Fold this protein.
Amino acid sequence: MTTEAIRVVLIDDHDLLRRGIKTMLETEGDIEVVGEGSDGAGAAALVEETTADVVLVDVIMPNKDGIEATREIKDAHPNVAVVVLSGHDEQRFVFDAVKAGASGYLLKTAELDEVVNTVRSVARGEMQLDPQLASQVLSEFETYRANDVADAFQPLTPREQEILQLMSEGLPNKAIASRLSISERTVTTHVANIYSKLHVNNRVSAIQEAMRRRILNYNP
């Protein structure tokens, strides 16, 4: 039985590094690089165009960083796995990446085998972090949860509830903006606020959490 190759998109503003990673990955028979980008601005669209399974994205890039790109990719394509590939091992970068929905965080000093194994692992739906980085993230999440207890039930504004309702009906941000006669940027800001208040990082989780809290009128 022939197994389909894992479809990978690479997003990094360093062309030489990106090409090197592509060459390394494509020496593996089960991985195919189907798209490349140099900044985070068009990441979600590139994933849509290429029907990628996994995205490797740099954390610091012009126009839109890897954390925001990860958030947008997971919002539009919740089943796509994102791995943040970075030269930074600071705790805040790792934590922000995982909070945005990343399934993995690799340092650019990682060996080829580690990169390949991570791509395969996240494609199977697993989480893949360096053990030292994982312990840092766990510690940060414990602090984060403790600090969030006080505002765990921070209410949504009427506008946020309205946008959440339209999200539950399957409308993308552009369509919501048109429906409410506001800018798409304003919708994006409201969606980010909704995620923050509900403590989620993608559309599906936001709707599920809103239903759990009984703040969403959902009629299937």
User: Anything to note?
Assistant: Residues 14 and 38 are 7 Å apart (CA to CA). The radius of gyration is 18 Å. The mean pLDDT is 82. Strands lie at 6-11, 31-37, 54-58, 81-86, 104-107, 128-129.
